[in-house]
Structure formats: C-alpha cells, structure tokens
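Changelog note: in this version the structure field was regenerated for every chain. One regenerated record is shown below for reference.
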Amino acid sequence: MPKLYTIICATRSARHGDKFAKWFNDFAAANSDFDAELIDLAEVKLPFFDESTHPRAQKYEHEHTKKWSKLIDAGDAFVFVIPEYNYSPPAEFFNAVNYLNTEWNYKPAAIMSYGGVSGGLRSAQVARSHLSTLRMVPLPEGIPLPNYPQFLNENGAFVATEMVEASAKTVLSELKVWNDGLQTIRNK
C-alpha cells in the first residue's frame, strides 16, 4: 500500500492543528487505500536549516537530516496541516520542506488549512506555490477549516462536518489518482 503522511506543521504549544491532523489521519486510514501515518514537526524537532550543501546534492552531514530524508523518501503522498500566520504557512513548514529536495519530487500533496474567515486559504496558496518548486504536485482540492473554533466541541476535540468529510474524501481520491500516475515517473 502507498504511504500517506499527514504532517502537523504548527509546533507552538497552543496549537490546534494536531487535532485536525489526527482526525484526518484516522479518516484516511479508514477511508482510503493508503497506509496512513502522522508526522508531527514538533516531535521531529528539525533545527533551523543547518546543512552546508544544497539539499539537491543529498550530502547530509547531520543525523536529524538523514532521518528526515529517510522518512520523507518513504512517503508517496502528503497532506500538510497548516494554519495561516500573516497570510502564510508557519516557518516550520518552510524549514521542514526546504531541508530536502529530491525526496519530495513527483509526489502529490494536499493541504488541510485552518484560520479565520478565509480558512487558511491564503496560507494554502503560498504552500502550494512553494511545493511546486520541489516538483511536487500540489492538489487544487483541499480541506479548509474557516473560523476553526466552530469545529471544536466543548472539550476542545475536533468534530468534522459533512462538508469536511466530503472534502477529505475528495482529497484522498485525488491523492490516489495522482500517486498512481506519478509512480510511473518515480520508477524511472
């Protein structure tokens, strides 16, 4: 089965992305042909990019980079769970993505975004543009969560609506289509 990584991109202590990402990861495990796994950048703990050579060379010096490379290289498709900070994804998203190059190539990616009225859509657009420079295929479909507190119950747990579930099903379907097609390129 192809590997789908759901990546929690916010690392601050007062975050909510972990709840959204866990829900999506569980939903993907139950509703797709992917082997779904959750990655939390707060646990990965990549320092600010510290390699001396460009990631395209894959001449990694540091153990944390080698571990990150091996993990991402094993992935077939990705869902980035990102908030919107000043119309952009958090710095941790850029740092984690920029650590590598070839490992991301020819793999599909989707965005689950959250924020205020826009649902993080501006952040998602910035992220899509950035991912495309790594030869990833960022899907136009996504899972926006506008005014995200409305999706949290009185205990702070995420409660998906029918619209969110429908969006997640579409994203999973499209990730499968693109992953199947891109496998041909990755296997050359």
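Spot check on this record: The first strand starts at residue 3 and ends at 8. The mean pLDDT is 97.
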